[in-house]
Amino acid sequence: MSFLNFFRKNYDNFHEKISANYIIDFRGRFISYDINTKKVISTFESNENLHRCILIQCKKRPDVAFILTKKKSFEISFAGDNALPRPVMSYHLLRAGTEDEIALRHPLWDHYVCSPHDNSDAPISCNRPHISRWEKFRFHPIENMDEIQSSYVKSISEFVSNDISAKSLSRWLESATNYEKHALLPAFLRLLSRDEMQNFGEILLKNSVTLAALKTSIQDDYWIRESIPQLVEWNKKRYHINSLKLDGSTDFFGELDYGHSRPPPLGYALWSQMRRLIKSRKQSCILATARDEGIYLLEWIAWHRAIGFDHIFICSNSNMDRSDELLQALSANGIITWVDTNPESPIQIQRKAYGAAMANLPQMLDYQWTLVIDLDEFLALDFNFYTEIRTFFDLQDARGADGIAFSWVMMTPDGKTSHDAQPMISRFQRREPPQNLLVKTAFQTRLASFCHAHNPHWAFQRSHRTFDTDGKILHTELSKAPHLSELGEKNAWIAHYFHKSLEEYVWKHSRPRGDTKNFSMKKSYEIRFIQPFIDFFDKNNTLPDKRLEPFIPALKKEISFLRSIPDIKKAEDRVKDYFAQNIEALVKETASIVQNSKEPLRIKQAWAALLETYQKERQPQ
C-alpha cells in the first residue's frame, strides 16, 4: 500500500498528525544514503545510487524525529552513532538558531548529528558535543510521498501517540509483525527515558513473551541476546555457578567503550537499568583478576574470607604457573567462582575480564557490594574499630553511599630478597609515604554496569555518590577523575603489596616468550617499575606499618582450613613447586637484561648489588 493511499484510508486529518520532509544541511546538501558505500552522506548530487533520507515527525511529539529512506530494505546508521543498522533511526529534535533550523541529538548520548565540513567527503556522523553550523539542518518538502513505507509510519504514529513509554512499547510488540519489530524496535527502545527504560526492564523480568520478542528482534546486540536473558533466568532461580569459561566471542569487551567517547550500546543501556531492579540477598563480594599468582591465592582468599566477604569471583587467563589447577580446585569446592577469560586476540585483558564477567555473571547481583581489586591488594581494616567488613559496609550503606573509595597504601620490600611461606602481612611491614593518589572502589553492585581497575562505571544516566572511608562525599557523577583523590586512611584502606621481595618482583614482571597460548614457553623478565622497587627496597624512604598484625591469627586459621581440603592442598603444592623450580634462573637472567638496558647507571649498579646480596643469602650457611 502506498503512503498516500494508507493515509487516505486511515487518517482524514493526516497532516495534523504526521509530517515528512527531506533533510538538507547548512550548505543545502541533501542527506542521502549511498547504496555503494552503504553510508549516509550529504550531497548535491541525485542519481539512482543515492536515496534521500526522510525525517518523520508526529505532531504530538515534535521533539522526536525518525529518519528512514523510501526503500524498506536499506539499513542505515550515522557514523559514530553506535546504533544497530536498521531501516529507521530515531533522534531527539531541537530548534537551532533561526526558526527553520533544527538539530538532532542522540537519545542515549548528549551529542549531535553533524554534516561534514565544506570540503570533506566524510559521512554524516553523530559525535559533536555542541551545536554550531555543521550541526544545523533544515527541512525540504517532499514532492512525491507515494513510496514512503506505510507500515513504518503507522507504527511510528501508534507508538508516539500512545506516549513513549514502556507500556506503549510492550503493547506495540504484541501487534507488530516480525519485520516491523526488527526494523523499528531499536529506534523505539532508545527513545525511552531512563526511568521508562527501567520500567521496560521490569516488564522483561516478568513477561517471557516480551523478552522473547526483544531477543528475536534484536539478535545483533550482545546484552539483548545473552546478558538480559541470563539475568532474567538467574533472577527466577538464583543458582550458583562454580566456573565460567569464555572464548574469543567475548574479546570485544576488551575494546568496548561504555559511553565515555561513544554512545553506549543499546542493550547495555537497557541491561544497566534492569540491574537496578535486582534485590541482593548477601552483602559483599570481590571481583579480581589474576595471572601467574598461584603462590598467593590461598593467603589472599583466606584474608578476605576471614574479614567477612561472602564470595570471590576471580578472572584469570593463560596461567603458566599451574594455578589453573588450584583455581579449579577452589571453584569445585565452592570457595570461589573462577572465570577463565580465555582471550583469542590481542586486547586489554583486564578490561575484557571486568566487562565480560559483569555481563555474564548475574550471580554478582546477589551481593549488595562489589570490591574490585587485584591479587596483590588486600582490603585492610583498622583493628581498633573493625574486625570484619560487615559492620563497615552497614555504616556506609546507612550514610547513603553508592561507592566507597579506599586509599592505596603501597607496601615495600622491607629489604627482603626471597619469597617464603609466611603471609605477606607478616613479611612486609613497611610502606611508602602517603603520597599515592590512586584509589580502589567498592560499589553497590546493582548500580554499576562496568568497572575499571580503580572505579566503577555507573549505570547509564544515573547519579551516584562515592564516599571516603570516613563518610565524606568524595565523588559524584560530575567528577572528572574518580580514580584519583587525596584520601586519608581512617577505618579502612587497600594494602598494595606491589613489589614484595626481589624474587617476587622478578616473577611479577616476567612474561612468556612467544605465543602466550603455548604454556610450554618460558617466562622472561621485562624491566618495569625497577626504579621504585630499588628506591623503596630497604628502610630508606619508607615508614613502618604493622597495623594488620592483630588479624594474623584469624588469617592463619582460614589458610589452614583451605589447606585441609585435599585437592586444594595438592594443587597449591604443585604451584609452589613450579615457582621453586623456576625462580632462581629467572632472577639470574635479569643481570644481563638490566645491564644491557637503557636504565641509568645508578639503577644498573643498584640492581647488581641486589643480585649479589640475593646470591649470598641463598648460599648454605
Can you describe this structure?
It is a single chain. The strands form seven sheets. Strands 12, 13, 14, 15, 16, 17, 18, 20, 23, 24 and 25 form an eleven-stranded mixed sheet that branches. α5 packs across α6 (208-217) and α14 crosses α17. 34% of the residues lie in helices and 22% in strands. The longest helix is centred in the C-terminal third of the chain and has 30 residues, at 566-595. β13, α9 (294-306) and β14 form a beta-alpha-beta unit. It is an alpha+beta fold and 621 residues long.
Low-confidence stretches: 1-15, 513-521
Distance between the termini: 96 Å
How many individual helices?
A: 18
Write down the Rg: 29 Å
Mean pLDDT across every amino acid position: 90
Helix/strand/pairing class, anyone?
alpha+beta
Shape: elongated
- Biggest sheet architecture: 11 strands, mixed
| Count of beta strands | 28
Strand residues, percent: 15-25%
Helix content: 25-40%
GO molecular function, one term: glycosyltransferase activity
Membrane topology: Single-pass membrane protein
Subcellular location: Membrane
Pfam families: Glyco_tranf_2_4
Secondary structure elements and pairings:
Blueprint: H1 3-10, E1 18-24, E2 30-34, E3 39-43, E4 50-52, E5 54-58, E6 61-68, E7 89-95, E8 101-105, E9 112-114, E10 125-128, E11 137-141, H2 150-161, H3 166-175, H4 178-189, H5 194-206, H6 208-217, H7 222-237, E12 243-245, H8 266-275, E13 282-290, H9 294-306, E14 311-316, H10 323-332, E15 337-340, H11 349-360, E16 367-374, E17 377-381, H12 389-398, E18 403-410, H13 424-427, E19 430-431, E20 439-444, E21 448-451, E22 456-458, E23 465-467, E24 473-476, E25 492-496, H14 502-508, E26 510-512, E27 523-525, H15 530-535, E28 543-544, H16 552-563, H17 566-595, H18 601-618
Parallel strand pairs: 12-15, 13-14, 13-16, 14-15, 18-23, 18-25
Antiparallel strand pairs: 1-5, 1-11, 2-3, 2-4, 5-6, 6-7, 7-8, 8-11, 9-10, 16-20, 17-25, 18-20, 19-28, 21-22, 23-24, 26-27
Helix pairs in contact: 2-4, 3-5, 4-6, 5-6, 5-8, 7-8, 9-16, 10-17, 14-17, 17-18
